[in-house]
Automatic annotation (TrEMBL):
This is PPP family 3-phenylpropionic acid transporter. Coiled coil: none annotated. One of its GO terms (molecular function) is lactose:proton symporter activity. The keyword Transport applies. The lineage of its organism: Bacteria, Pseudomonadati, Pseudomonadota, Alphaproteobacteria, Hyphomicrobiales.
Amino acid sequence: MSLPPLSPEQLVKPRHFELRMSLIFATLFVPLGTHVPYFPLWLEAQGFHAEQIAVILAAPMFLRVVTTPLLTSLADRARDRANVYIALVAASLLLSAGYFLTPSYAMVLAVSLALTIVWTPHSPLADSLALSGVRRFGSNYTSMRKWGSISYLFANVAGGFILSATGSGAVPVIIFVSLAAALAAGLLAPRLGRPRRASPLSATDIQHVAPKLLNPYFLYFSIGVGVITASHAFLYGFVSIYWKSIGLSDSVVGLLWAWGVVAEVCMFMMFTRYFSSFSVVSIMVMAGIGAIVRWIAFPLVWPLGLGVAGFFGVQTLHSVSVALVLIGLQKMIGETVSEERTGAAQGIAYFSNGFFMAVVTLASGPLYHRFGVDGFFAMIPIALIGLVLIGLAARSAPQRRIRR
């Protein structure tokens, strides 16, 4: 399916396009880099128990699986997606102030649910704007997007040092201030008009072509990826709480999170040289095995006296259990899904990842409450189920790749 021709207005490149998009990505990922590792610590400091923390973390995941494709689809119909991005960032800033209210369970849950609706679309909308620049003006996507990874790392590390000095009560303040910075950058977003094709998460696009993707290979593979990804839910929800419980400082916690991201980025950089010849099934099997090794090792590091160095070693496996999953999924879609269906394929994969992550996150609260760090062992059978699904996908794999 060919793209519609560019209008004369669409051929005009906004001034400093790459610089403005780099600034958007840089500010976009600071609140995310604070929320993922430190928000559970703030919840625990407010007196919420593990089951309540799990609900507060999981409920927004269920909700955003539905709302994010809807909002990105609506953004495609707006006069300019930049205006939608600005409106959503402004709404996120206002709603995040709700965390400054008396933190009752009902209040925090309500704020988290409302916030996820307007916060989660930030990244796909920014990607949509950046990719329009790639198609229209030949911009380099990675040169813009890398600033998001850099700022995420910065937020991990800086957040840990800030919390060491101030306590976890600073988490809502950091999120609020960083969203304010994201809004300021968003006001500089380049105006590009409507996209020539619906965004990768377009609900209309998914509805139109998804039935063509419902073949055993794609379904087994997508669900398998979602299940392997979901085995990380216990890590994302409770590892910061665990690290604090054994006496690690906030700054060390931040460095451990950052090291996982560094390992992930290193895999992205070295993948083509060392792994590009592997089949997608082989890549995903390596990722699943990496996840299983990680969940076996995590509960043993501290009892075996391996200390902080042991946790850094385990976090290095992020390059396998996370990066290879992300790469393998995109490699599978690129090899077996035709171009006009890639948007729907991405949307189905997003739904699978989001749904299973939410389910396992919800179960992680009771697991941590009862078993503590040994709850990681419960992630092993989940990763194994994912590997079985990948094996079923291999049995039904297409005999030839999509023509290019």
